[in-house]
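thought: fold this chain, then report.
action: predict
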Amino acid sequence: MFEDEGYSLDTLAVRAGQSRSPEGEHSEALYLTSSYVFPSAAEAAARFTGESTGNVYSRYTNPTVRMFEQRIAALEGGEAAVATASGMAAILSLCMALLKSGDKVICSRSVFGTTTALFTRYMEKFGVRVAFVDLTDMHSWQGALDGDTKLLFMETPSNPLCEVADIRQLADLAHSAGALLVVDNCFCTPALQRPLELGADIVVHSATKYLDGQGRCVGGVAVGSKEFMDELVIFLRTAGPSMSPFNAWVFLKGLETLNLRMQAHCRNALALAWWLDEQAAVEKVNYAGLPKHPGHLLAAKQQSAFGGVLSFTVRGGREEAWKVIDNCRIFSCTANLGDAKSTIVHPATTTHGRLSEEDKARAGITENLIRVSVGLEDIGDLQRDLDRGLAQL
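observation:
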């Protein structure tokens, strides 16, 4: 296997996980089948019990999905991966496989709004206690720990304020309490940051974002040790929030250019952040690539670059933020990110719209906040596009 030979990330992104059929195809094969034919009844029985390895049913064994799982595991430096129908399905599977009633999760307030809703509306419903803390406040994380804590969950950089947490420090804290650290690595991808190497136990992704890179398919994945991923496979086999083979094939194609795309996203985002920081209508720019960002030095230490997502606040409120968004012609007004096309969104009324006003305030989601995912268009064109909206203020 290519992932066992010490190859670089660029090589793994193109080659890891591929297995060829007797037909000798060069591109990865797309296995569009729901089930598999067994050579005998005895072999069928052996596969269903796990006594024999091999495909059983595409809900949890499919060669195309398996190739994607092996490739992203190699890129993240994990032993195994489990692909799911969406990023939220990956987080749900993780919770259902590893938590039980009476357990406690400590989660950063600075996460995707739907992640917050999953923990509060559903995990708490089934007896899992959840505590929310400030991402960068180690005392808050420490203070929330107790004997029932099983998971610490965070995004770094965070969505949408681009806050940065010390992964190694939080991993040490989690392990001191017998808990696991889970990191949503969606904003960075393994091209920029490898949390498992910094001590995290599990990494999750919305593959919908940068792993695809062109906004074509929805999917998710969790990466970690074989022990933890085996638990997720059992849940996947039972509950079925599975990735489709076609989507896995699309994500495999996306991974081939992941590093190249991420470097281009980062260059554009850094240039746009500097430009926004000079605009009179902009109050504040949230991007760790700017030296004045409080997480700049930490991000420079644990990331190879600063990512393609930034946010900024404009002078005014919702009306002014919407005016900027509505006057853009290149930026797409959509909640997705990680696309070759630049996107722009108002978090307070979309991605974080289901949060209470109190929770929005605690998470720093203000009415004048705009999030931008910087795509691969010409940076001058992107600046002129945003200037059209800012000029209205």
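thought: worth noting. The first strand starts at residue 80 and ends at 84.
final: tokens above.
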